[in-house]
Amino acid sequence: MAKRAAGRMRWDSVWLLRLLMSVLVLERFQLVAGLLQVEMAGRTQMVFLNENVTIFCKIRDSPHLDIKSMGITWFQKTGKSETYTKLFQYFGNYRETSQRGAWVSLRSLQKGDASLQLPRVQLEDAGEYRCELVVTPQKAQGSVWLKVVAQPVSNLSEQVMVKDNKDRHILCTSSRFYPEHINITWKKWTQNDRHFREFSKNITTDHIVKNEDGTFNITSHLRLKPSLEDNGTIYQCVVWHVSLPTIQSLDFQLILHPESEKKTDWLSIGMIVVIIIGLIILLYIFLKTRSVKCWKWCLLKRVCAHVVQLFMTLWSVVCQAPLSMEFSKQEHWNGLPFPSPGAFPNPEIEPKSPAFQVDSLLLEPLGKLEDERHCKQRLLEDKGPSKLELDQMTASSTHQQI
Ligand SMILES: *[C@@H]1O[C@H](CO)[C@@H](O)[C@H](O)[C@H]1NC(C)=O
Ligand SMILES: *[C@@H]1O[C@H](CO)[C@@H](O)[C@H](O)[C@H]1NC(C)=O
Ligand SMILES: *[C@@H]1O[C@H](CO)[C@@H](O)[C@H](O)[C@H]1NC(C)=O
Ligand SMILES: *[C@@H]1O[C@H](CO)[C@@H](O)[C@H](O)[C@H]1NC(C)=O
Ligand SMILES: *[C@@H]1O[C@H](CO)[C@@H](O)[C@H](O)[C@H]1NC(C)=O
Ligand SMILES: *[C@@H]1O[C@H](CO)[C@@H](O)[C@H](O)[C@H]1NC(C)=O
Prior knowledge:
Immunoglobulin-like, signal, immunoglobulin domain, Ig/MHC_CS
């Protein structure tokens, strides 16, 4: 009986010992697993194109490590590739780097930081990165998805569309961004409403264009035909892109200046009046001297031609003056319907189109020659002016032809 009891006790103790051991082993396992763990920058890490970046991989609780008894390997899987390629490896005194020039600072490694330094990130560098650490006898690994982005550079500019009914286009351009998806909207603040409100009328967005480096450009047009109630309206172009921490907004205020337009108006009207009065006086003098001789006719015609030419030149100067001002105004975003070529507020005094001006100037000398031949012929018949006068006239007419 006693023998039996002793045997049972032995059995029990063996079983107990086993249990104890297995618990210990389990605990040790847990300890091992808890000791070596790496931390990455979450599931994905967003980096900017062309920057020198750090892909995080840190040992939790950052222990002080003897780098001689550890190893680190970084792998990369980019694009459509199915396999991982080795980017960097270090163990013992052995170090291996790939052509990409990625590296891990050994000084940081001693402090448990195995982060990878990747110089001048390109769009092709996007993909999965895996960090594998061995601190004998333990092992740990972590991976992260690297997302490469480029921030849009946005800009407002202005364009006068000669083709499109001389409308003004305000362009909001965003350039060199990546990835392709972008959202450009327009908002408007008016004196009456005093809130920025989104609107979509008269807005067109161009097709996206790709740059050589793989980034994109896009332009959104706002077609404007400002009227008096638009004075003081603020227009805003709002750009949203995944690479931006907040939205980008660019705005400009429309300030109308009708007074300055009127000034140029009065100037041109005044000039026309002066010229017309001059012509009337000439005509009057001409009609008063009843005994008209042909050479007087010719002189009068020539004077008239000069006056018309002068008028044309002055007119073109008047027309061009506001045009050049328009482009210098661009930056301030003000000025009423920026006078575009030929767009005079009063249609009745609209100048002739440049094509018409060229035509009439070309035709003019031909008519003059015809007239002069005719005149000289009549002069001979008339026996009008003295020899001296005739000489003077021929001299001046040859001068004209030159
Ligand atoms: C990236 O690092 C290189 C040297 O490794 C340096 O010349 C360059 O200016 C750095 N570029 C940026 C954007 O920090
Ligand atoms: C904005 O666009 C205009 C016209 O395209 C250009 O002249 C100007 O240099 C641009 N400004 C910036 C800061 O890019
Ligand atoms: C995109 O915009 C940039 C900056 O404005 C310009 O230098 C580049 O030429 C543009 N690319 C295309 C394809 O138009
Ligand atoms: C663009 O932004 C507007 C307003 O923020 C939003 O209503 C619209 O859905 C966005 N469009 C896209 C394609 O994200
Ligand atoms: C849009 O443009 C047309 C023609 O330029 C104009 O008649 C209309 O008033 C514009 N609409 C708005 C809301 O500005
Ligand atoms: C437009 O507003 C500006 C100031 O906001 C003012 O100086 C200008 O006279 C206004 N123009 C018209 C036509 O009322």
